[in-house]
Amino acid sequence: MNALIERMAAQQMAMDQARPHTDIDTLPLAASRLELRYEGHAALDRVSLRLEPGTVLGLIGRNGAGKTTLIRALLGLVEPDAGSATVWGRPALQMGDAAKARLAYVPQQPEALAWLKVGDMLDFVGRFYPNWDAAFVDDTLDRWELPRDRMLAKLSPGERQRVAIVRALAPRPELLVLDEPAASLDPVARRELLREIALRAGESGTTVLFSTHIVSDLERVASHVAFMHQGRLLLHGELDGLKERNLRLHVPASAADQLVGPVPGEVARRPHLYGGHSIVIVREEGAAWPALASAPGVQREVLSLEDLFVEVAG
Amino acid sequence: MNTAMPRTAPAAAARETTVQRARALLLACVPRRTRVLCVAATVLLLGIAIALAMLAPRSERGAIAAVAFAAFAVAVPWGFWFPRLLLLQVEAHASRLPALAASIPAALALLLLATVVLPAAALVVLAGAEPVFALSALMAAATAGPLMAMLPGWCYLALCFAPLLCAALLLLAQRLLGLEALRLDLAAVFDLQRLPALAAVLALLAAWRWRAIARGAGLLPDSPWRRPVVLQAHGTQLWGGSGLLDANQWQAAMPDWLWPAGQTGRAGRTRPVEAMRVLLGTPFAPLRRGQILLQFGFAAIALLVFVAALTADPTSEQVRNLINGGLGGGLAGGGITLVGMYGWRLDVLRRRAAGEMVELALLPGFGDPAQARRSLWRAVARPLVQTGLFGAAILIALGVVAGVDAAGLAWLLVAVIGLGLLAALACLRPLAGQPMLSIWMAGLALATLVMLMSTTAVVTRPEWGSGSAWLVGGWSLVCAACGIGLAQSWRRFRARPHPFVQ
To answer: Are B365 and B275 in contact (CB under 8 A)?
Structure first.
């Protein structure tokens, strides 16, 4: 499995390098071969990523895959052991006020300034942003029934998350980074958040990076998707393209015996209980399906994003 | 909580003896590390008790000393380990495991037999201790720890201020109301003859609290101030776990007028230091006028008590003890507590992944990393220096009131400087990405505590002889160690790409 992950990560890196690139100064976020180890365990293993302006990138992976660490490294909140991250072309660890004023971040479980009242916190934070939208704050607090005069520490996790989202959206950021934003939200609040993200991206061209393990959320708003597994970035591309470029091949035992080495684009392989193999392939953009896909006896099945995720990370 | 639970299959449970079940419960309620530490401390203290019993057989003082060490040995597991059985009992109720909950009283009875009754009998036989005294001393030691763990948070605050309040009330009664007959006889309070009564009261209170908490666990109050401490320690430790030390929970339950932070009035982009203080929270946050008055009020009451005490009867030994105790307790206890409070807050911020450090790192307006570093250090240093100057002023005032000579006052200032260096190091380490507490820091804090107590002893008890050489040597070492630590941490702090990186 590790060899497969290694190969997929290398393939992904080669594909990223081959893709026509936007000038790095206009890229909201970029990472190059980020490495970070915690107690001997690789939380990030040579991760490279480019977030093009106006895209909505859904970062998907299992718990502990390294999504939060990647986001924190991209924003310069942690110092990587190797590699670099940039925000609009400048090192994330040296970000200036101008870049900070253009971005907003919602952590997984916001804990900051819990001793302040909701209104006081938003008024205080608003003083730092030139584009702070006080009307949006008032309107959204009312719409989401969030009390201005209640202390943050006394709110439920879901309410706290929604206050953090209001705080992040109010400065009208050009780059919005959300770490598992829907984790504590009820279905109604989740839909409202997704609608807000889609609206911002569609109307204002806001670039969004959000991590999740809820595939339906991702499918609803993301234009791009990146799979993280064991600290590596395995697949990264346009969501629609990825759906069209994957196949699960059910290879009978007779054909499987004749396979030598990995199939081009192979991302997962499992033996069938009744003999043979199931092989998941993701072909490169513009490339043809491998010959195995049309071999006699081989059955083809297009996977949903969720099934693809399970195959890759399972 | 450790999940190693007793076997639950009915047949296996039926075969289990009470001893086996008690053993399994004890293994389940705390992690191995705590158990090992408790056992090691108990064995050490018991060893001393046995040695004393052997070295001074049948002597009264030897027997008292042996009983005292045995009591300390008993207090360790009852203070740090066994109260967690209550948490287990409450969780057993919540998880609908009545057999587990029902087996805990039997385990407690067995523990009392093993740690109180049998050791008391051994002390009677080996050291010739008086039976009632031995039994009541061990019983008091065994019940005090669980009782403390079962007290709600507000009781700890009350206990901290109780001595000051009692002294103030006593002096007011004597000076203003003329109740001269109202005297506190400390010798009578600590009379060993009263030990059986004390043990009985502690045992009754502990049993009452245990029963009340175990039965009413489902109706616990929301406020951590009103919730028993043991039920807030769901982590691996009874004392000092993350649940207990989450300041947000405690502050959330405070009344508005007592909020230690909340002043955002003038803080903002144009006042970066003030804004950083808001973001750093208590005790760095700017205070409202009412909060400042409250703090000055407490200090004024403390000063008034001392002045009233001294003018009441300057020659009285009791008054001298009160003043010396106030100086020693204030400087050593209060000083180290303040250092811990400032350093701990920054350490919490360093460890919290989605807390104020993220806001500090991503809020625009703090300038480039060098500017942010300067503002951060000012935001940390300003309240620290203010508190230090305020504390030094009170200390010097107390010293003057107590008649401390110029050399003594100078030593008090040296102590304040030493404490200030330790506070600076405790604050700088988390900002440099290092944990506030380490073996090195614990040793340094202990050495500082010893020097603070030595200083107050030398200053307030000149009749004990001059300890100048000891103070010069001790404070030089403490200051040098703090200086080395500060230099190392400062280099790390400056080498970080920005001051809020985690």
So the answer is: yes
Lowest mean pLDDT segment, chosen from B180-194, B395-409, B465-479: B180-194
A231, A73 Cβ separation under 8 angstroms: no
Shortest CA gap A306–chain B (Å): 29
Nearest to B358 among A77, A91, A124 (CB): A77
Instruction: Dump pLDDT digits (tens) for B143-191.
Output: 998 898 888 888 887 887 777 777 767 766 766 666 666 566 656 656 7
Chain A CB contacts of B252 below 8 Å: 114-115, 151, 153-154
H helical segments located in B128-265: 131-150, 153-175, 186-189, 195-215, 247-252
Q: DSSP 3-state assignment of B435?
A: coil
Which two three-digit tokens encode residue B230? 């043991």
A266-304 pLDDT per residue, tens: 888 888 877 888 888 888 877 888 888 788 888 888 888
Q: Torsions phi, psi of B281, nearest 5?
A: 75, -170
Taking residue A100's Cβ as centre, other Cβ atoms within 10 Å add up to 23
CB hemisphere CA count around A75 (13 angstroms): 31
Question: Residue holding tokens 């304040």?
Answer: B416
DSSP-assigned beta bridge partners for residue A207: A175
Question: H/E element holding B480?
Answer: helix B468-495
Contact B498 A113 (CB under 8 A): no
Tokens 């929604």 -> residue? A162
Locate the DSSP E strands across A147-286: 175-179, 207-212, 224-229, 232-238, 246-251, 266-271, 277-282
Q: So what's the architecture of A2-102+173-241 in CATH?
A: 3-Layer(aba) Sandwich (3.40)
Q: Do the Cβ atoms of B269 and A72 come within 8 Å?
A: no
Among residues A238, A248, A178, A240, which one has the least CA distance to residue A214? A178
B122 vs B247: CA distance, rounded Å: 45
Residue boundaries of the structural domains of chain A: 2-102+173-241, 112-171, 245-313
Sheet holding A266-271, edge to edge: A266-271, A277-282, A246-251, A299-301
The H or E element spanning position A215 is helix A215-221
